[in-house]
């Protein structure tokens, strides 16, 4: 048996058994949250994806269209396959369970990397932080869409790559393959490529080694482009171009000013922690303490002093944070916080929050007052995450919105869409309303009222879509068509188009 000195030494050294214990404790906390609040019940994307997988499982038919969630998220194919395996053993929501398993894996890998790369006291502090972390990260352990939180493991893996000794051709070929697969998994990881190149430049690697990395990277990305160009991912109605992400494209001309960058650091980043919420205004002080400690950790006397005595590879993590913040500020995904401040609105930050936390801990650990600063910083996350259990439970399902999401992916094949809805455990009427809304909005969102030819071309497509549903279902679908022209929904459609649709719409039982 270990004496007191042995226990203290093991605790200080942060060995693999302790990493496993911290991982288990973190999973237990997230499992309790998921059990009590079932956050996936409020997510149309999660519900639609789960319904698609249920159809795969019931029919035994696997297709690229049903396995991938969105075309830019290649990693969702792996999640779908894992979820289908889970369905063999339990009827519990498979995407929620796969999120829990992947969250555990991500945290274990992150802790292992920190143990290998950083000094023990930083590794221990980070391990403690992972148990309860921040309130905005906890729901993603049982909520599955977007890949932002899961992809947070890739910056840590890049740190491990850049700080280990490597000089063989094979090492650099593997580096490039890693970067390519990371981007294929999620486009969030594009930011790792310039950071890797910068690190190679700072480490003065020979040109030949650069070429090995770039060759394997180009090979993987070329294969990805080939797959994305030829594999059918659905979304025919939405017509997402290969150069966009969910229809959002980048425009150099429209890049925003430095005001967005300032707001990203001072407003969006603190809000993304979830330490402040609209229903808990008293948490302002908690967010303020966290923000002050974060700035101290990032400050010159913190991060600069800590990195001065380390290899140049460690600076890559700090560079990833800065590049992420900059790209977010000028991207079409920048969110000004004017409508909602919940954790979903700031989901992109889950990619960078664990790495940012690590570097704050690195900075705070460099101060003489670290025994006060580090526990205070950890306490902010602990208290904030525990306050999650004080929120009100919501038991409603956003089924209309779920129907919209399903239609964006499968609306071009209404027969299959109808089967997916029929196999669902939910009331099919609101789902059908969502399909009518989705079909109409996607067909007519770019149609001008005065462009009679374009409108008249699309109305028969809509009528044919309705005809694929059983007569008992058409009333709900038509309600969705009318909903698409309501002033409360987006995109805004011209009601004159609705009048022209109604004039050509055949009689539907029970609907006027």
How would you sum up this structure, described in words?
The protein is mostly helical and 512 residues long. It is built from 23 helices and no strands. It has helices at 4-13, 16-37, 44-59, 64-67, 75-87, 94-117, 120-132, 153-163, 169-185, 192-202, 207-230, 258-272, 284-298, 300-308, 315-330, 353-364, 370-386, 399-410, 414-422, 428-444, 452-467, 471-483, 495-504. The longest helix has 24 residues, at 94-117. The protein is globular.
How would the blueprint of this fold be written?
Layout: H1 4-13, H2 16-37, H3 44-59, H4 64-67, H5 75-87, H6 94-117, H7 120-132, H8 153-163, H9 169-185, H10 192-202, H11 207-230, H12 258-272, H13 284-298, H14 300-308, H15 315-330, H16 353-364, H17 370-386, H18 399-410, H19 414-422, H20 428-444, H21 452-467, H22 471-483, H23 495-504
Helix pairs in contact: 2-6, 2-7, 3-5, 3-18, 5-6, 6-7, 6-8, 7-16, 7-17, 8-10, 9-11, 10-15, 12-15, 13-16, 13-17, 14-16, 18-19, 18-20, 20-21, 20-22
Write a brief caption for the model.
This protein has 512 residues and is mainly α. The protein is 64% helix and 0% strand. The longest helix has 24 residues, at 94-117.
